[in-house]
Amino acid sequence: MLTVNGVELVADRCGVLWWPARSTVAVADLHLEKGSGYAARGALVPPYDTTETLARLTEVIVRLQPERVICLGDSFHDRGAAGRLAPADAARLSALIAGRDWIWIAGNHDPSPPDVWGGRVLGSLTDGALVFRHEAQRGAVGELSGHYHPKATIRTRGRRVTARCFVGDGRRLILPAFGAYTGGLDVLDPAIAGLLDRRFHVHLVGRSRLYSLPRGALVH
Prior knowledge:
alpha/beta, Purple Acid Phosphatase, chain A, domain 2, 7-stranded mixed β-sheet, 5 helices, 31% strand
């Protein structure tokens, strides 16, 4: 359990944020069809990331049964990504959206997210003390965002371990990228650290649980 601007939230072990009081799941940076986008430019990347990403998202939705899902931008890797979805992946996405209040927040990779499978497209969403958007804005309070694909590194048992993470300071929270082929930016990089109070915390995403750590426990 964590608190952002006085609101109790749950950082889920799969890398999504759960708001029980609103029956809401927030997920960041799916980057669907990133593999096929790279393959079209000659990169030798297996084009199975969408299938894997949607399978993990399905597990989360089946387990939590949210009434609302908010995708925090860059849900699709580029403007043509929706047209490259395999029929089975498109059908799975359509089934996830059906019967829910599904919100596509516009991102820099998908400034006009497709809504052919349903859902609403918004630039941002404010609900009570929280605001959902793609990229953090300096000085914002109650903000939940993605964009930066945060990751953090710790030293344990004589070795370095790096994992994607949630990072926040009580006023705002940046979610980890959920997509299978998404990289990451270290939270100690000024682009992320400069947005947060110096006493920020991270919640590292492990294989079966989260590990909550203060900034002081991190290494470059």
